[in-house]
Write a structure and sequence with these properties.
Helix content: over 70%
Shape: globular
Largest sheet: none
């Protein structure tokens, strides 16, 4: 009986570990589907360059996201994620998005150069570097994963163990990558006549980047600058 009880506990533990991986996959997949800087950039790279570069960008972005998730699992009480850290991240994120917006608008005004260029963003020629920058400077990663971590821990689905954390993060990586692959597929195979629509797409991308930068400026003002002014 004792051996049977041990076997059942081990089976239940394995089931919980597998379940948290599925939760991580679903959360990250659904969270990466709404338009954001990562998925629209993956789309843009696939459409204007090739799938290989878009995959390199996606792997780099996912890798950084997993590092951020691991730090959030340490607890926001130990690391002041929503305070000083976001104050330093937001200005750099705004600057990067403004650069991407300006580059897109400049490309839209010279579509022939956009088509023949090896990269859409002249100063950032490495897709890996662009993925690292956009993912690491995305301040929305932090509150998103802190919130989900707390919920899963409160529901006793996520446990403070190596197996549970590993399964959770593997699921997150697969989910985010799966969502980005959808945008890569759309960019490469749906917009096959990219040269014909390159100027329009560049204008749309520029507007999206500009909109995201204004939103982050609003967050910076609301969370930090407003308090200092008042």
């Amino acid at each position: 009986m004792e051996k049977l009880a041990v076997a059942l506990r081990a089976q239940n533990s394995t089931t919980r570990v597998g379940l948290i991986g599925i939760y991580g996959l679903l959360i990250s997949f659904v969270g990466a589907l709404p338009l954001g800087t990562l998925n629209i950039t993956a789309f843009n790279i696939a459409a204007s360059q090739n799938v290989g570069e878009a995959l390199l960008f996606s792997f780099a972005a996912v890798f950084v996201e997993l590092i951020i998730v691991r730090f959030t699992l340490m607890g926001d009480k130990k690391i002041n994620f929503n305070g000083k850290l976001s104050f330093y991240i937001l200005p750099f994120a705004v600057a990067l998005l403004l650069y991407l917006a300006i580059s897109s608008f400049m490309s839209a005004s010279a579509p022939q150069e956009l088509v023949t260029s090896a990269t859409v963003f002249p100063m950032i020629q490495s897709s890996i570097l662009l993925g690292v920058l956009l993912s690491s400077l995305n301040p929305l990663h932090i509150p998103f994963w802190i919130g989900w971590n707390r919920l899963l821990i409160s529901k006793r689905l996520l446990h403070n163990s190596l197996g549970s954390y590993t399964s959770y993060m593997v699921g997150i990586g697969i989910g985010t990558l799966g969502a980005l692959l959808i945008f890569i597929f759309l960019g490469k195979y749906i917009f096959q006549n990219y040269q014909q629509y390159s100027s329009i797409i560049a204008w749309i991308m520029g507007c999206l980047y500009l909109g995201f930068s204004f939103y982050l400026l609003f967050l910076l003002y609301k969370k930090h600058l407003k308090l200092k002014i008042s």
